Amino acid sequence: MSAIRIIEGVYRNKPVRNVTFNLVKGYATGSKGGFVTVQSDGYFGPEFDVVRIRVDGIRNFEYVNGVEVQDNTVHFEKPAPVVESDEQAMDRIRERFDILTEMTKATVSGDIRAMIVSGPPGVGKSFGVETEIEKACLFDKLAGKRLRAEVVKGSATPIGLYQTLYKYSDANCVVVFDDCDSILLDDVALNLLKGALDSGKKRTISWLSESSALRREGIPDRFEFKGSVIFITNLKFDKMKSQKLRDHLDALQSRCHYLDLTLDTMRDKLLRIKQIARDGVLFQDYDFEEAVQDDIIGFMNDNKDRLREVSLRMALKIADLRKMSVLNWKRLAETTCMKTA
């Protein structure tokens, strides 16, 4: 914010000398003479916020921090855009994924009943969630019991969604829908998902059509869903162009927690790859020195516009080629990992 130093002024008969304030509005004149408008910030007492200080002409004050005065007219310079450094960006990205892990744990424990996770493909959205789900099911596996959680991948029909929700409707159960965006395009499936994500105390899900499949499996046409749901999607809800779909997505967001991983640019994706590599996770199955890892990431950065995709999966594909051929891995990557001209 721009500032102004009052060399000689008056506010409510109180002298103001050599005091700097945050500037609200530059020099103007009124019935009682010239004045400037500033933020009090407690100088004149806690009850005063924005005040006008009377000054006898422009010689009794001076502007500082991005203000020019030409012919008694105040010109405010535009603040320089805030540029996020690579380190700051990686910290932001890491924090988002840490939050994803924390929220997943809360969903497994039942403290959070529903969450939507949005982010581009190939950045590790599913990895952290699946890791926590595996931990939650570990004791079930050891005891030979039915697993309390499941990860559903790919398309899901409405009746398949209903059956899955019933199967994991107990209070200690979790169902994860990963890359099941087809659910959002089917009105019946979407309404079932809305019911499961509802924030109300009691979530009742119904199937009002006749179904021999449900009868065979002994599944009722109505049940109370007490489990938790995590929906992982590549869609960015606030960027959808279809108003109809946008309305549905807004309804989903209002029912549960929505976590956008904020990987919106090519730079963000590359920094996510760099961050995972630096944390020692990405290439942990390869006996690569740090210089080799940097070389792979540098190669991806140099060819980001030519690669079929910029993702963790692509980094591992190129790592496989580097392990296969120390001398020719770049040529192999150009042939197998890049788009044809």
Short description:
This protein is of the alpha/beta class and 341 residues long.
Largest sheet: 5 strands, antiparallel
Question: What percentage of residues falls in helices of 4 or more residues?
Answer: 25-40%
Question: Helix- and strand-based class?
Answer: alpha/beta
Specify the number of helices.
Answer: 10
Low-confidence stretches: none
CATH superfamily of the largest domain: P-loop containing nucleotide triphosphate hydrolases
CATH architecture of the largest domain: 3-Layer(aba) Sandwich
β-strand amount: 15-25%
Order of helices and strands: EEEEEEEEEHEHEHEHEHEEHEHHHH
Terminus-to-terminus distance: 49 Å
Number of strands: 16
Q: Provide the spatial order of strands within the biggest beta sheet.
A: 6-5-4-1-7
Mean pLDDT: 88
